[in-house]
Specification:
Length: about 180
């Protein structure tokens, strides 16, 4: 299943999304990443909306204009592998070079965890790396994508990240890695 998803080519991006917002591209680590922006000309605070699993920047179709109307500089982004962003094969050498797992001490620390029913389970190793070794699709890669986007495109001293699902984990990782931005 993962191999089949990794082989999906990028979709042809229309100039305007079905929501009426202009689609834009940002080049990141050799890949094209789609984003949308409203209220860029305003002086208000910046906010970046990050989608979750199986959706894209259009997930925020009602929030983006509402935030811009309220005075925010509002952005939404397609994470690498989602929406109209590029979808490189997960373990392609170029994709491996872009992986956020590179250079991180990712072991399997022993942690005590709980079950869904609230039971405390015995301590066990919890791997921090993606199960497909070298895959570009991981929370560290997406966190670095979000951090770079805030610096290179938004350019604000600080940006509020609003996210759901896997976007939340990526946003939390980005905030933990760069708390001052």
């Amino acid at each position: 299943m993962l191999a089949a998803l990794a082989a999906v080519p990028s979709l042809k991006m229309p100039p305007v999304s079905p929501t009426g917002t202009i689609n834009r591209l940002w080049e990141w680590r050799g890949y094209q990443v789609r984003y949308q922006a409203l209220g860029e000309e305003q002086d208000g605070p910046a906010v970046l909306l990050v989608h979750g699993l199986f959706v894209n920047a259009d997930h925020w179709r009602q929030n983006l204009p509402a935030l811009a109307e309220a005075g925010f500089r509002a952005y939404s982004i397609d994470l690498l592998g989602y929406g109209y962003s590029d979808k490189p094969p997960s373990t392609d050498p170029v994709a491996r070079a872009a992986s956020g797992e590179n250079g991180r001490p990712l072991g399997s620390p022993v942690q005590q965890i709980g079950s869904a029913s609230g039971e405390v389970l015995p301590a066990r190793p919890v791997p921090l790396a993606h199960p497909v070794e070298g895959s570009v699709y991981n929370f560290y890669t997406w966190a670095e994508q979000l951090a770079d986007f805030t610096k290179q495109v938004i350019g604000a001293k600080s940006t509020t990240l609003v996210a759901n699902s896997i976007g939340s984990i990526s946003a939390l990782q980005a905030a933990a890695a760069e708390p001052d931005s």
